[in-house]
Specification:
This protein is an alpha/beta fold. The chain contains six helices and five strands; from the N terminus they run E-H-E-H-H-E-H-E-H-E-H. Helix 1 links the parallel strand 1 and strand 2. The chain is globular and about 65 Å long.
Length: 167
Amino acid sequence: MEDLADYHVSTMHYSRILIAVDDDDFISSRRAFDYACTVAKIYNIPLAVTMILETGDLNIFQSLSPDVLAKRRAEIARDLNIYCDKAREFGVMDVQPLLGEGNPSHEIVEEIVPSFRPDLLVIGSETKPGHRTIGTHAAYMARYAPCSVIIVRSDAQISRMLKDFEK
């Protein structure tokens, strides 16, 4: 067994980052996106930005309507491209958009991560009672993703937690 006294700290370097942003929840995505862009810029490494069209959020009539699906796909693709443009404006040199459909946690862990092969997955997390966001999928992704996962809390959630600790 390696002895702690003989251990030497070594630098850690990421080579590819995947950031999962939620089109329905800018609050939880913003801070995580800032973090992912900062790390990608500092290390000068590729950043993939992914958004998932949550088909489970559509009612049966919406899911059967090609026009509704096409409109929703176009909205998500537009927003995904805006995130990518923001990352490039910030100074991230290699930015790739990745769009998926289905259950976000399953789609990201089973499809997006294997295709992009990041060594770091960054996700925002803010859950509100009765409202599912990417953050509600954070535990699943942290448990099953084959790479390191960083869960970034929103400013609002950090403020609420600090107020609870002060009580």
